[in-house]
Task: inverse folding
């Protein structure tokens, strides 16, 4: 089923409204999922709605809870997402953090008692459109072992970065596992084996069996250095915000158990104070990269897809469409 | 030659004083090099002094220039290192940045017209001992190509992180190349070949010849993701501070050409505002990691060596010792 963006948005929003979420919460969540679809990341788009909705029904997501924003220091914004969805909590937090960064030059935004933040690159992109450099750190339920360890301890823990650039920010967004967990799930569904180097089994041994891989751990990108970066992201998200560690967090893919209580942190930096010629210096660097055959800048592909998909509309699987229609009219 | 720490420090300091560096500059540079030796990182220790000193003699390092500190925004500190050594510039910057972070909760320190920052982990460790989380980003002369590219464009660009912990901060310090450039230099000296996966030749092809590797590019850790992180660090150091890009910077290993004009940035975050129980939450995470056989925390080995070496003294090669003595008494 091919839907234009407005119809897609209305469909998603209706599902969340029917669950008792506020207009603001329903809009923020749907905005984020539509943008993931536009950018060609369906794993973080409307396919998540059944999980998100079931979690609201079971109480794992507190869909009617009100997030609270505070400013415990002049350049620190804290959001208690109150176990509701992450998107409205982060959006509220940014509304406070952006003016503070404009005034002081730097700001830290921390979001605790949070849920899945979707495409981390979208928030840093939004900050970069305000003229600031942004870094974000998020933990997710446990997937990666410490180096030489065997227990899933850190999430795939996305690290994202963006800086202002015309006509669109330069955006970096990467998880710290070698490949996305969704690829292992897909291999399992198809009954295929996975390449060595993707995952370990519960005993910490290499495996090509996706079922054993899903019970075990995912290999970090770049070996020991990637596992260390996953630890860094874990500290900058979970520990900094007093949320659950990845190994304590419940799944984002079922409606069982307590709220995941994961966390996200954002650092905002105004580049104008250190280098008024930041745009020109960035173009010099970009030109040097793009002058080499075969290269591209990170995030370019998403923006190109976004513009194409906005005009063309988004294809939603018929079964998912039927399910969302039914959920929207409950 | 085994030297006690005081004698080692005096020897190093005398070399820089004899070059006309101030007491402050000589002390800061020597402090950093001694600490590298203590931590078992001789590649960033006294073996650098002949290069640093020759660069002062040729004017590539402006050994008598005075670094200037300014505060262009309430939480932004800028240091113009004036092409003198990096260590005194960063030290001066931190003296301003630390009280600002205590007051506002976050601070950004940028150092431009800078030189080699040595062991990046040492600065973030120093910040963490003040009770703050620290991130640092530094560019170095070009070594790594953009993904699918073939020109050395980014430095090995160390990324460092530290957070407060008792009795010592937890410190992460990694370059973004698969291995240190020094290992390739060593293989060349010994006439040995290097494993595939370390480096590419000037045409972007895999090579096991260390000479061809040194003319070519070093492979980033974790493939495309590592190259992208190297770009991120390049933007957060060179572009943010208006310094030279890695591909414009002159070598740190000869006395030829203009000043390298590289850059370093530091982000300081006070964790107490978001999570007053940060120490307890960090211990829970550390216990989970250390409960797995074979694991250790990043930075632990350096601290252990430091304490051992402080008692035992530092072994300096006889030829280097003789050279430093001669340079100190010029």
Result:
């Amino acid at each position: 089923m091919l839907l234009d963006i407005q119809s897609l948005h209305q469909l998603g929003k209706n599902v969340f409204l029917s669950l008792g979420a506020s207009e603001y919460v329903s809009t923020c969540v749907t905005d984020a999922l539509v943008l993931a679809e536009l950018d060609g990341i369906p794993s973080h788009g409307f396919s998540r709605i059944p999980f998100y909705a079931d979690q609201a029904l079971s109480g794992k997501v507190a869909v009617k809870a009100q997030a609270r924003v505070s400013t415990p220091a002049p350049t620190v914004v804290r959001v208690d997402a109150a176990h509701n969805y992450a998107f409205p909590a982060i959006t509220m937090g940014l509304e406070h953090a952006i003016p503070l960064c404009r005034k002081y030059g730097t700001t830290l935004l921390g979001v605790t008692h949070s849920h899945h933040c979707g495409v981390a690159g979208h928030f840093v992109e939004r900050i970069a459109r305000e003229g600031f450099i942004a870094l974000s750190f998020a933990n997710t339920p446990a997937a990666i072992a410490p180096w030489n360890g065997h227990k899933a301890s850190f999430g795939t823990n996305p690290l994202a970065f963006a800086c202002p650039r015309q006509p669109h920010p330069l955006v970096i967004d990467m998880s710290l596992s070698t490949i996305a967990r969704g690829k292992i799930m897909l291999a399992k569904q198809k009954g295929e084996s996975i390449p060595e180097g993707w995952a370990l089994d519960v005993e910490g041994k290499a495996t090509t069996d996706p079922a054993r891989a899903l019970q075990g751990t995912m290999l970090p990108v770049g070996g020991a250095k990637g596992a260390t970066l996953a630890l860094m992201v874990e500290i900058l998200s979970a520990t900094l915000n007093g949320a659950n560690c990845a190994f304590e967090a419940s799944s984002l893919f079922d409606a069982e158990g307590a709220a995941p209580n994961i966390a996200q942190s954002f650092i905002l930096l105004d580049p104008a104070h250190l280098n008024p010629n930041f745009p020109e210096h960035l173009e010099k660097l970009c030109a040097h990269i793009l002058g080499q055959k075969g290269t591209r800048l990170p995030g370019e592909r998403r923006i190109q897809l976004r513009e194409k998909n906005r005009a063309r509309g988004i294809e939603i699987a018929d079964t998912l469409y039927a399910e969302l229609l039914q959920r929207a009219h409950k």
Notes: Residues 2-177+220-276+300-328 of chain B form a domain with the Ribosomal Protein S8; Chain: A, domain 1 fold (CATH 3.30.1370.60).
